[in-house]
């Protein structure tokens, strides 16, 4: 089913750009708990501006933002767990000042979007961090001694893909862990035995695809069950689990999973578009998780990313790469880095 193109006029691009520019400078106090994860907030804002085809707005600050991201890179040889990127300077120098797998991804993805050549990245330290954070069961911890689950499997895999260096990952163990997280329901849980969830299903499917193990790890009936589970999560927008309300972010998590599995056309794009647009804030811009929640950087980004999966929205948004979760324009720059012909 194609999107009714007249709906695109409801999209308030300039409001969203204004909201994102404000988020780059100051956030409301109710987002203060994100303070140790500033890099991921920066990624949501920078990638949103990219999807809105408004990169030129960052020109004046581009160098300063790139330097700030690199300032989060932990110098080598600081000890166990002290490799990669910290999420914020808030913990700098204290006992919890660890590198964090998702912050490494946020840093690399943001640098690629900003057109950086990644030449100041300490690749060896990052690969060693990934190796250090893989556990015996194949999963990955976020930081030294922290919880381990599918979110950090994806972070380790996508960072290895970006660096084109897989030596930090035991791929066989990783695939075994992912496979054990496949629930009887059809989707993937965060860990073996957990309820299937839209976010962990995305992380599992995108990881298998990036490792080129999708068809090796899953047989046809399992892939069919995953597709069915994802399609059944559409209730207008998408819910993350059965009997939950729809939430803007799952338009990306589940939509991108279906895109990777080449079955996005099974979704009702008009109902999905209408739901995401109902979470658009017409006064200050941005998107919330639902129509009665205030806008925040994460749901704004994932709302835009979810909308960009709908074919007709390329009139208002860049197309997104569903596996790496950056625009196709940024992906082209990444390919350029991979070819080592980056200028
Ligand atoms: Zn959400």
Automatic annotation (TrEMBL):
<dbReference type="GO" id="GO:0005953">
    <property type="term" value="C:CAAX-protein geranylgeranyltransferase complex"/>
</dbReference>
<dbReference type="GO" id="GO:0004662">
    <property type="term" value="F:CAAX-protein geranylgeranyltransferase activity"/>
</dbReference>
<keyword id="KW-0479">Metal-binding</keyword>
<dbReference type="InterPro" id="IPR008930">
    <property type="entry name" value="Terpenoid_cyclase/PrenylTrfase"/>
</dbReference>
<dbReference type="InterPro" id="IPR041960">
    <property type="entry name" value="GGTase_I_beta"/>
</dbReference>
<comment type="similarity">
    <text>Belongs to the protein prenyltransferase subunit beta family.</text>
</comment>
<keyword id="KW-0460">Magnesium</keyword>
<comment type="subunit">
    <text>Heterodimer of FNTA and PGGT1B. PGGT1B mediates interaction with substrate peptides.</text>
</comment>
<keyword id="KW-0862">Zinc</keyword>
<feature type="domain" description="Prenyltransferase alpha-alpha toroid">
    <location>
        <begin position="11"/>
        <end position="326"/>
    </location>
</feature>
<dbReference type="Pfam" id="PF00432">
    <property type="entry name" value="Prenyltrans"/>
</dbReference>
<protein>
    <recommendedName>
        <fullName>Geranylgeranyl transferase type-1 subunit beta</fullName>
        <ecNumber>2.5.1.59</ecNumber>
    </recommendedName>
</protein>
<dbReference type="InterPro" id="IPR045089">
    <property type="entry name" value="PGGT1B-like"/>
</dbReference>
<keyword id="KW-0637">Prenyltransferase</keyword>
<dbReference type="InterPro" id="IPR001330">
    <property type="entry name" value="Prenyltrans"/>
</dbReference>
<keyword id="KW-0677">Repeat</keyword>
<keyword id="KW-0808">Transferase</keyword>
<dbReference type="GO" id="GO:0046872">
    <property type="term" value="F:metal ion binding"/>
</dbReference>
């Amino acid at each position: 089913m194609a999107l009714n193109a007249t709906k695109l006029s409801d999209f308030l691009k300039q409001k969203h750009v204004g909201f994102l520019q404000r988020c780059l400078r100051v956030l409301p106090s109710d987002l203060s708990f994100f303070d140790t994860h500033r890099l991921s907030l920066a990624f949501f804002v920078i990638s949103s501006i990219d999807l809105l085809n408004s990169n030129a707005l960052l020109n004046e600050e581009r160098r300063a933002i790139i330097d700030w991201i690199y300032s989060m890179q932990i110098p080598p040889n600081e000890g166990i767990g002290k490799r990669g990127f910290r999420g914020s300077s808030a913990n700098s120098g204290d006992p919890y000042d660890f590198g964090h797998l998702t912050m490494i991804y946020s840093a690399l993805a943001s640098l690629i979007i900003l057109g950086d050549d990644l030449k100041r990245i300490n690749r060896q330290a990052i690969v060693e961090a990934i190796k250090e954070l893989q556990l015996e069961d194949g999963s990955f911890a976020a930081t030294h001694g922290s919880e381990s689950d599918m979110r950090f499997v994806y972070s380790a895999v996508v960072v290895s893909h970006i660096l084109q260096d897989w030596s930090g990952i035991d791929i066989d163990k990783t695939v075994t862990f992912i496979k054990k997280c496949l629930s009887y329901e059809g989707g993937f849980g965060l860990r073996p035995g957990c309820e299937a969830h839209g976010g962990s299903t995305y992380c599992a499917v995108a990881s298998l695809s990036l490792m080129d193990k999708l068809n090796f790890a899953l047989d046809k009936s399992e892939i069919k069950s995953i597709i069915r589970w994802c399609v059944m999560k559409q209730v207008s927008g998408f819910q993350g689990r059965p009997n939950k309300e729809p939430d803007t972010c799952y338009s990306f998590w589940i939509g991108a999973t279906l895109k990777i599995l080449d079955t996005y056309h099974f979704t009702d794009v008009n109902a999905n578009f209408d739901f995401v647009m109902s979470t658009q804030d017409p006064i200050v811009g941005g998107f919330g998780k639902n129509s009665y929640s205030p806008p925040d950087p994460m749901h704004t980004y994932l709302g835009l990313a979810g909308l960009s999966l709908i074919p007709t929205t390329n009139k208002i948004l860049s197309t997104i790469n569903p596996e790496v979760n950056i625009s196709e324009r940024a992906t082209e720059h990444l390919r350029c880095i991979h070819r080592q012909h980056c200028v």
